[in-house]
């Protein structure tokens, strides 16, 4: 499993496109909307090999609107669905102060207000290809 450093600000999938002799990686608007990144700033980028090998498949995937069907538990999509309630373990805290948990296949779930070691029950509120955002519905489900 790949270790995710505390300095990781954003994780998403995008095709690399050639334009006038340079290469462009399109940043999803949600990364700006959720303040993971800011426009007109410079960032260090890591490129990881995608299991999707054809450019057309990547383009089709990035152009699809999120839906309950694309957020199914199949091995090709995110392992969580919007509205799903589940227990997670917070492993670290991101730069924005939110807790970070990993679930099946290393999929990242961002939990506002959680700290490392917390084991809250969360509700998945938004699902993206590589990350989901959740809120705490029970902060200590294992306490008696």
From TrEMBL:
Position of the signal peptide: none
Top-rank lineage group of the source organism: Archaea
Residues of the TRAM domain: 79-138
Low complexity bias spans: 50-63
Any matching Pfam family: TRAM
Classification via InterPro entries: NA-bd_OB-fold (IPR012340), TRAM_dom (IPR002792)
UniProt region (Disordered), positions on chain: 50-97
UniProt name for this protein: Predicted RNA-binding protein, contains TRAM domain
């Amino acid at each position: 499993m790949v270790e995710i450093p505390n300095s990781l600000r954003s994780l998403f999938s995008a095709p690399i496109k050639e334009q006038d002799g340079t290469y462009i990686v399109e940043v999803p608007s949600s990364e700006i909307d959720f303040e993971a990144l800011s426009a007109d700033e410079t960032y260090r980028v890591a490129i990881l090999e995608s299991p999707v090998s054809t450019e057309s498949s990547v383009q089709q995937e990035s152009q699809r609107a999120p839906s309950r069907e694309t957020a199914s538990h199949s091995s090709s999509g995110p392992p969580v669905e919007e509205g799903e309630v589940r227990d997670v373990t917070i492993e670290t805290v991101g730069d924005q102060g939110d807790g970070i948990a990993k679930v099946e296949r290393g999929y990242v779930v961002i939990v506002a207000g959680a700290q490392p070691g917390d084991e809250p029950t969360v509700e998945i509120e938004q699902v993206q290809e590589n990350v989901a955002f959740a809120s705490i519905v029970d902060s200590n489900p294992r306490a008696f």
